[in-house]
Design goal:
Blueprint: E1 2-6, H1 11-24, E2 27-32, H2 35-49, E3 53-57, H3 65-75, E4 82-85, H4 100-128, E5 131-136, H5 149-169, E6 174-179, E7 183-184, H6 193-201, E8 205-206, H7 208-220, E9 225-226, H8 230-239, H9 244-254
Parallel strand pairs: 1-2, 1-4, 2-3, 4-5, 5-6, 6-9, 7-8
Length: 259
């Protein structure tokens, strides 16, 4: 089994790579824009778990990055059985103050590249009659929250796109899972350490190793979607009906909790 993991050099992507190698004995094609860190991860995982690892440096925010990555696999005769679309970015900014380059980066990384990778590798999986695709969304997909307007919109795309794809590919033996966690205990969101600990204690935030362990179990069982954490699951319907006064209150205070 060969698993392609994007964003594999750190955070959640690193956990996916580690657990796929350790617990499923999967060979790995690891993709990231952090070239030095990626090679170190590939070497460490190969040594620790006896699997074949390939480190592929790539900037997945480029418009044609999906085609380039797919062509690389074709040239190297790499048959991808598991596709993990984890690479992502996060920033908190008023939209009209956000540089156009940052907007384009997020749209390409979260929407264009994810959709193209699913198209290219999904076709191969469907032809073989077996395969697995996991896409990372977020609870923010249901939020209208100023400051993360591009982030939550792209995560909404991933969520609905993945669910639709599950229905299309399931009859052809390919499972598509979309994970929509709340906060994950990584540095991505820039929360202060004390708030990160509190969020984990309240089960609002989940450690990345626990999230990935759960996600891979769901993926290989053929599940369609998942939101970890009882509080998060309970809050999901409420997020769709957040009153305006609460949104404005959040706007007022959220900035001071950022680093």
């Amino acid at each position: 089994m060969l698993s392609l993991v994007t964003g594999a050099s750190s955070g959640i992507g690193l956990q996916y790579a580690t657990q796929l190698a350790r617990d499923y004995k999967s060979d790995l094609l690891l993709v990231s824009n952090q070239e030095k860190e990626l090679q170190t991860v590939a070497d460490d995982l190969a040594t620790a778990y006896g699997v074949k690892t390939i480190a592929k440096y790539a900037d997945l925010s480029k418009q044609d990055s999906a085609e380039e990555l797919y062509q690389y696999c074709q040239t190297e005769n790499l048959e991808v059985d598991v596709l993990i679309n984890d690479a992502g970015v996060f920033f908190f900014n008023p939209y009209v103050e956000t540089p156009m380059s940052r907007i384009e980066l997020m749209l390409n990384l979260h929407v264009v590249t994810v959709a193209k990778l699913c198209r290219l590798f999904g076709e191969d999986m469907a032809r073989r009659g077996k395969g697995y695709i996991l896409n990372m969304s977020s609870m923010s997909a249901w939020m209208a929250m100023p400051g993360i307007q591009t982030y939550n919109a792209t995560k909404a795309f991933i969520y609905n796109f993945s669910k639709s794809l599950w229905y299309e590919l399931k009859p052809q033996g390919v499972n598509v899972l979309v994970m929509a966690p709340g906060a994950v205990d990584t540095a991505l969101f820039g929360l202060a350490p004390n708030l990160r600990k509190l969020a984990v204690a309240l089960t609002v935030s989940i450690p990345p190793e626990k999230l990935v362990r759960r996600a891979l179990k769901k993926l290989f069982k053929g599940k369609k979607k998942d939101t970890p954490g009882f509080i998060n699951w309970l809050a999901t319907p409420l997020l769709k009906h957040t009153p305006d006064w609460l949104v404005f209150l959040a706007m007022k205070y959220v900035g001071k909790y950022q680093k």
